[in-house]
């Protein structure tokens, strides 16, 4: 159990999340606190088991978000070795966490782009994106911060 806690703490630190703050994951906050509406829109494609995903976080407000972390979960396991951009870290066999950073009210964040390899070159994969930490800000609208995209290994681009 201690090894798992150390690993989770290390992943959170890489993504810029204070480990104690993770208790406010997903919904992000306390009742009556500040509210924001996070959204993720982008594109994903897959060819020969290599997936390219890029997305831009947005905060529709009304409050600013001091920091946020997004989870990318795959239906297929990731290859053992991955080259991840700064602010992103593996969090399991099928999960990558990426730091979004601060988002002003009604503001866009920096585009996040990843190139990942799936184990065994599957013919299709499901990508799920969702907010796992929002810096203590409550997001009541999960329609646009939880995305599910079925990707076929055709090289075609799928938008979300």
List the helices and strands and how they pair.
Blueprint: H1 2-14, E1 38-47, E2 50-59, E3 69-74, E4 88-90, E5 95-99, E6 107-108, E7 112-117, E8 124-133, E9 146-152, E10 157-159
Antiparallel strand pairs: 1-2, 1-10, 2-6, 2-7, 3-5, 3-8, 4-5, 8-9
Describe this structure in words.
There is one protein chain. By secondary structure, the protein is mainly beta. It has one helix and ten strands, in the order αββββββββββ. The chain has one helix at 2-14, and strands spanning 38-47, 50-59, 69-74, 88-90, 95-99, 107-108, 112-117, 124-133, 146-152, 157-159. The strands form two sheets. Strands 1, 2, 6, 7 and 10 form a five-stranded antiparallel sheet that branches. The chain is elongated, with a radius of gyration of 15 Å.
Percentage beta strand: 35-45%
Coarse morphology: elongated
Q: What letter string, H or E per element, gives the SSE order?
A: HEEEEEEEEEE
Percent helix among the residues? under 10%
Which stretches of 5+ consecutive residues score pLDDT under 50? 1-13, 18-29
Write down the Rg: 15 Å
Could you tell me how far the N terminus lies from the C terminus, measured between alpha carbons in angstroms? 37 Å
Mean pLDDT comes to 86
Structural class: mainly beta
Task: Name the descriptors.
160 residues; mainly beta; 5-stranded antiparallel sheet; 1 helix; 10 strands; 39% strand; elongated; disordered N terminus
